[in-house]
Amino acid sequence: MRSEPSAAPSPVTLRRASPPDAAAAADVWLRSFAAALPTVVSPRSADEVRDHFRDVVVPFRETWVADAGDGGGIVGVMVLNDDELSQLYLRPDWRGRGIGDRFVALAKERSPDGLSLWTFQVNKPAHRFYERHGFVAAERTDGSGNEEREPDVRYVWRPLIS
């Protein structure tokens, strides 16, 4: 018995988030944070994170989502705040498919003069990811300036001047 070939997965679209995306974007954040940072304690409950995405992030920040359509819905979220890449999270089962690379390219396009971001010192995969995209560690802290009280690293990216 021969099986029918499976349909190709629908392409993932990067688009600006709208209010109905807030809950799904928050869920991506929650799942990714739990998977990537199991030793970091979030200072907010899941409900507080969802409220924050609904009331602050989506309406007042430049929020982008990776939408896999019927094949998966919202699978990634990126938030820009002027020249700061303040959030970039992917659903764990969607990592390694180039979505993060596309988000970083979009962030660079939106902030062509440069970007900065913070990531936790324990998040070595994030360090490798951002360094691969030309970001350079510029500052390390003891975490006293973030909600989680977790040591972090500020990365910066500046375009090459030719």
Strand coverage percent: 25-35%
Radius of gyration: 17 Å
> What is the mean pLDDT?
91
The tally of strands reads 7
Overall SS class: alpha+beta
The CATH architecture can be given as 3-Layer(aba) Sandwich
Output the CATH class name: Alpha Beta
Strand order of the largest sheet: 1-2-3-4
SS field, number of helical segments: 4
Helix content: 25-40%
Pattern of helices and strands? EHHEEEHEHEE
**Main beta sheet:** 4 strands, antiparallel
Uncertain stretches of 5 or more adjacent residues: 1-8
In the CATH scheme, what's the topology name?
Aminopeptidase
The dominant shape is globular
Any idea what the CATH superfamily is called?
Gcn5-related N-acetyltransferase (GNAT)
Q: What is the CA-CA span between the terminal residues? A: 60 Å
Number of structural domains: 1
Question: What can you tell me about this protein's structure?
Answer:
This protein has one domain: 3-Layer(aba) Sandwich (Aminopeptidase). Helix content is about 30%, strand content about 25%. It has about 160 residues and is α+β, with helices and mostly antiparallel strands. The strands form 2 sheets. It has a 4-stranded antiparallel beta sheet, with helices on both faces. Helix 1 crosses helix 2 (about 45-60). A hairpin with a 2-residue loop joins strand 3 (about 75-80) and strand 4 (about 85-90). The protein has helices at about 20-35, 45-60, 100-110, 125-130, and strands spanning about 15, 60-65, 75-80, 85-90, 115-120, 135-140, 150-155. The longest helix is centred in the first third of the chain and has 15 residues, at about 20-35. Residues about 1-10 have low confidence and may be disordered. The protein contains 4 helices and 7 strands.
